[in-house]
Amino acid sequence: MSARQKVFGIGFQKTGTTSLGQALRLLGYKTISTEDKKRCWQGLLNGIPLDELAYCLDPWDAFEDNPFFWPHIGEERRPFYEWAIVKYPDAKFILTSRASTEVWIKSLVGHLKRKKIYPGGAKPGTQKFVKRAMVYGAEAVSTMDLELFAEVYDNYIHDARAYFTENASDKFLDVCWENGDGWDNLCPFLGCQEPLSNKFPHQRKAPFSLSFRK
Predict the structure, then answer these.
(1) What CATH number should be reported for the domain holding residue 80?
(2) Quick check: pTM over 0.90?
(3) pLDDT at residue 205 above 80?
(4) What are phi and psi of 7, to 5 degrees?
């Protein structure tokens, strides 16, 4: 069991989650291993309740990307952060987002192209399909209708901000690296000193020249 306060990155994929993970490591946090992260999301795909998967999280300090942004988990269909704030009441939560929904969509399309999912969609029944359908819905993953992806993203951002504003504003940080957020936001929130090498780790930058598929 990790004795340090846990930090959950709850931003969607392609919102700077890799940068967040690297920043947390530079601050001395133990980020979840690839193996335990995979055990967690595979367990969820197999219908295992989050309470039974907590052993994957207990040894670690920090978390980002899948499945920590999933918006509809378990029979209650609630977002991951609603479970985590009960399970780990001292935890803090960081919502990463992009400068605009359009920027996020373009980045997501590039990711889906590299995974050979866009523009044709994922084949139903495959892990590629089931994993993404958990987040975006079966119709979006089948049709690659970008408006459906954007709707899920926008609703999630809105709902997360509303939830923490009402329930735990002191445990919530809302950042966008493209808008200049960085150590000046992260370190005071976590009560950490800025690293001696103060360049913020912007990872996996990609050009935003992809076109939308209507």
Answers:
(1) 3.40.50.300
(2) yes
(3) no
(4) -130, 120
